[in-house]
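Quiz preparation item.
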């Protein structure tokens, strides 16, 4: 399976990616991949260090004739998003990623691929191992926990790096040069509720929303993709309004940075109302599926009878939660006035858990403008505090402000045009890159971001273009040749 990946060109890069993907590396569980990377550096006889939070730094001297050039920091993150299809039997803590070739794409078997940001890591490994690639002195920085808190970048100490230029290899379109990104903050709403015993004459149902595409909660937020938590709430709200539906539990979504693809609820309705309830909820399901037919053609909404649970939510709390979830903003909040087609501010209602007397709603709010991010956080806070939730924020990280006069931008712009006969698209993105945080530690470092084409990141549909990786690999090598003198 993965052996066919090793035959792809450029072999140096794809082989390192296959090696990396054999190592389990979910966010916040990077111990094995940290050891893998330090062993790799040591095997090459290169100076290798680990800082107090787990970031790895490998230094390689300049090749002959390149010692007068500025030192370059090549940077990618070691962790990956762990998402899988509901019917995929896979343990991210113990198993390596199973890959296969599908035309021009490399995919995984029912899980995320880890191309975000594994292809960046593999690129740097291939450069470090190379004996024939011209390059200046390199500081290879491998950060941890980018996907669920950026704690690696946040914990990086000033003074550990000496490089003048940072090449961040974590964007996902091969014709794009990244010069800016959004900041983000986690928003969490919690409250408790009393469970009530179920009266006689009730019937239980399980409602399942699945088959959505999901995707990156920043890069894909403008696509109008279905959010399983919002769809489920729409169904439950209608059932409550029309039939007095009562909620036993809801479990929807998983990670803050992934648009939720699945949600399952257990509910109760009056037995006398079951036929009317089934008809109406299935009619609403048809309507929702028609609305999302273009962007989410595989959406499935299933309603099945189930054993009657012992308890349901307090009805007053339930009504407030369903209304607050309806009101809470999800998706694009505002577009940038300064950069065409760039999402400025957004929110992803990522995970909803209602069970055993506790409500937990987890969101990720992003923005390239700090004041707009604060405005949307306040909107969410006000919405959930109206139903007496305790609302907290955490994991706040800054955006990366574009510098259109960046010297390294000029280098990449010229190299891209020379190699491809056209200009690259210079843009900021609505994802969280580590450049904003790294720039706080190293304010004088000249930063840029680029990468190969990766689609469906943060979902089991993640795939990397083979031809794009070939194009990108040439770009990387040419950039290293053109790093300016000190």
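Solution:
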């Amino acid at each position: 399976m993965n052996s066919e990946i090793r035959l792809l060109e450029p072999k140096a890069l794809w082989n390192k990616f296959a090696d990396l993907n054999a190592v389990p590396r979910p966010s916040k569980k990077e111990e094995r991949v940290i050891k893998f990377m330090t062993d790799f550096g040591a095997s090459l006889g290169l100076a290798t260090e680990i800082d107090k939070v787990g970031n790895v730094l490998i230094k390689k001297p300049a090749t002959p004739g390149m010692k007068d050039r500025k030192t370059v920091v090549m940077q990618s993150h070691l962790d990956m998003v762990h998402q899988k299809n509901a019917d995929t039997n896979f343990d991210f803590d113990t198993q390596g990623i199973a890959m296969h070739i599908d035309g021009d794409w490399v995919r995984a078997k029912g899980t995320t691929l880890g191309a975000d940001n594994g292809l960046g890591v593999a690129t740097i490994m291939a450069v470090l191992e190379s004996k024939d690639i011209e390059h200046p002195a390199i500081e290879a920085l491998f950060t941890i926990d980018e996907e669920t808190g950026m704690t690696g970048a946040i914990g990086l100490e000033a003074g550990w790096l000496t490089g003048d230029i940072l090449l961040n290899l974590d964007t996902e379109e091969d014709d794009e040069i990244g010069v800016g990104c959004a900041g983000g903050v986690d928003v969490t709403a919690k409250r408790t509720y009393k469970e009530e015993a179920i009266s006689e004459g009730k019937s239980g149902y399980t409602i399942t929303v699945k088959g959505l595409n999901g995707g990156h909660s920043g890069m894909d937020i403008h696509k109008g993709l279905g959010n399983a938590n919002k769809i489920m709430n729409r169904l439950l709200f209608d059932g409550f309004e029309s039939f007095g539906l009562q909620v036993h539990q809801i479990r929807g979504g998983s990670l803050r940075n992934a648009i939720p693809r699945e949600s399952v609820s257990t509910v109760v309705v009056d037995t006398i109302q079951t036929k009317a309830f089934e008809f109406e909820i299935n009619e609403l399901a048809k309507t929702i599926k028609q609305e999302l037919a273009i962007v989410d053609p595989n959406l499935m909404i299933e309603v099945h009878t189930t054993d009657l649970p012992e308890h349901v939510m307090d009805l007053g709390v339930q009504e407030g939660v369903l209304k607050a979830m309806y009101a809470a903003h999800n998706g694009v909040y505002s577009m940038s006035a300064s950069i065409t087609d760039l999402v400025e501010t957004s929110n992803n209602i990522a995970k909803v858990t209602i069970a055993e007397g506790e409500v937990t709603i987890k969101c990720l709010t992003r923005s390239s403008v700090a004041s707009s991010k604060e405005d949307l956080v306040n909107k969410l806070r006000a919405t959930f505090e109206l139903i007496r939730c305790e609302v907290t924020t955490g994991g706040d990280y800054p955006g990366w402000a574009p510098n259109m006069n960046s010297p390294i931008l000029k280098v990449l712009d010229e190299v891209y045009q020379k190699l491809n006969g056209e200009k690259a698209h210079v843009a900021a993105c609505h994802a969280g890159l580590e450049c904003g945080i790294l720039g706080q530690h190293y304010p004088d470092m000249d930063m840029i971001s680029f990468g190969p084409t990766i689609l469906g990141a943060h979902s089991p549909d993640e795939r990397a273009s083979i031809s794009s990786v070939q194009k990108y690999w040439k770009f990387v090598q040419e950039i290293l040749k053109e790093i300016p003198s000190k």
